[in-house]
Every structure is written in structure tokens, then in C-alpha cells.
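Weekly structure sync, notes
Attendees: PL (lead), two postdocs, one rotation student
Agenda item 3: pending single-chain targets
PL asked that the sequence for the first pending target be pasted directly into the notes so everyone works from the same version. It is reproduced below exactly as submitted, 342 residues in total.
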Amino acid sequence: MRTTSRYRASTRIITAIGVVSLVAACAGNGGTTATGGATGGGYPDKNITFVVPFSAGGPTDTVTRMIAEPMAAKLGGKIVVQNVEGAGGTVGAGEVARADPDGYTVLMHHIGMSTAPALYQNLDYKPLEDFQTVGLVTEVPMTIVARKDFAPKTLQELVTHVKANASKVTLANAGIGAASHLCGLLFQTATGVKLQEVPYEGTGPALTDLVGGQVDFMCDQTTNTSGQITAGEVKAYAVTTPERVKSLPDLPTTTEAGLPQLQVSVWHGLYVPKATPPEVVQKLTEALKVALADQKVIDQMAKLGTAPVPAEDATAEAHRTKLQEQIGTWGKVIADAGVKAS
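Predicted structure, written out during the meeting:
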């Protein structure tokens, strides 16, 4: 798959054995490789590329790499994880939409797949028309976190502080359309205040600057913030789901903390280009279900405050229903916020 040189790409190969061993260079990039079992002919008979439309090390990338190895084991081949960044995930998604519909180019995307039609005026693909859904993967809670020396101690104090200092407070995000941006929009809607937003090229750089004290606060997924919260590197105010997260038991929900209007989780799913053969989609769905039932994956996700979706949601049909519903929901939120991207 061609990757435009304007955008950084990083690649690793995940294959079908339990222990992944390091090798030297792989196609010009650092890589991780292991040997898969015999394919027995048919699909797959070459490497499958999983495209992550966000930076390496970010939440979506983390989830992708968790499921890639057990999926490769089920499929009996190799999976290459490739990061294609740019424009809130639309660059990578667009490349997959234009890829050959043969099952060898797969997209892992999050909630941004449902918000892009409302955000981007010149979007060159239609989520429901140009992709075939494979299955949902996980729903990740969001957390509201700040630099550790930020004055507000509770979520209510944060709301009071930002209302009094709107022109001075900085709200970081990973770029327009990113999950952190969407959660930030909901925070501003819920509090009735417009803040100075600081967009970054990915969640990693945004969180790095937050830990370093260059920005005040942000809203980000537990897969990206749990480590910093438990290590005391950031100040955490709340989790944006109805129930507390098991890995962060002392962190209240937004409802408990006094901001019930702010409820959001970031769902992830796998996609292939439209017209991919049904039997290939089914093989990918079956491999996804195996990966989500893998105890190692379950344990890894639990440490990051999330869990695999139930088996009945790891299907093409459930995934498409979710996508359709979310396009309608977010279309209204984004229109009300008056946010547009080029």
C-alpha cells in the first residue's frame, strides 16, 4: 500500500507465535517478526496490513497491536501494523477506502469514523458506502486529566476555574476529529465555555506536553492515561462513563463528580474496503473473535481500563449498526458546536 511521504508511517510485523522476537530492518523500518503457521492455501497467502490512522504509541495503535498477534495466529499469516497519520484519521482511512478490496488492507479506526462526515467538508470517502465493517473491538472510557500542578483539585473546581479563566486555560487534543478533540468539545458544551484549544499531531505528543506542564488539561482515553494517572504524573478528575473503571477505582465518574452531561466512550472497529469478498470478511471476523477471547488480550486491556466487546458485537452487522447510529448522534453534536475542518 502506498503511503504519502507527507505523513509519517511506522511499521511492525506481528505474526502467529506466542513470543515475538526482534529482527533487524524490515522493509526499511524497524520491525517485529515471528513465524506463522501454514496457511493451507487461499486467504491469506501474503502479509495483511492493518492501517492505524494515528501515531504510533497512541490509544488506537495500542489496541491494534494487542489484537494483531492472536488474529495472525488464527489466520495463519503475518499482520503488518502501519501508522498513517494526518487530518484526524482521514488520511489513513482514505487510503484504505481506495485500496484493493482483497482483505490485505484493513483499517482500525475509532469513533472518528462516525464524526468525519460532519467535521470534514471535503471528505473523500463515505464511511457507510466505501467500507465493509468487520466487527467492533472495544469501547474505551475517557478521562479528564491535567498537569499535576494545576490548581483545581476536583472536577467541580475545574469547571469553576475554566469559566473564570477561559482566555487563559489551554485544552490540549490530538488534532481535529481525534477522540480527545471530540471529548473536549463535549466538555465545552457541558460547561458552556469556549477554551483555547491546542491541537497536536497525535495523542502521544499532547500527553507528553501535559506531563511536562506545557498545557493545562485534556480529555483522553484510559489506554493512554492510566499509566500516568497511577504514577502520579498527571492530576485526574473523572472518567466519562456511567461506572468507575476497575483499574482506576478511586477515580469518580463525571456523574459522581457533578458533570453528568459529559458521557463518552471511544469505540474501535475493523474495516475493509467495500466489495471485499464476504468469505474474507468472515475470516477476519472469526479471527477478531478469537483475539478478543484471548486471555492475554483481556488482561492487557484490563490494565488500561477497558475490555473486549461481547462476542455478539464483534460482528460486521453489529458494527455497521453502531456506525450508523453514531454518525447520526455526532452529526448533531458537531453541528451544534459549529466545528468544521478543511
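Discussion points:
- DSSP finds eleven helices and twelve strands in the chain.
- The first strand starts at residue 11 and ends at 15.
Action: rotation student to compare against the earlier draft before next sync.
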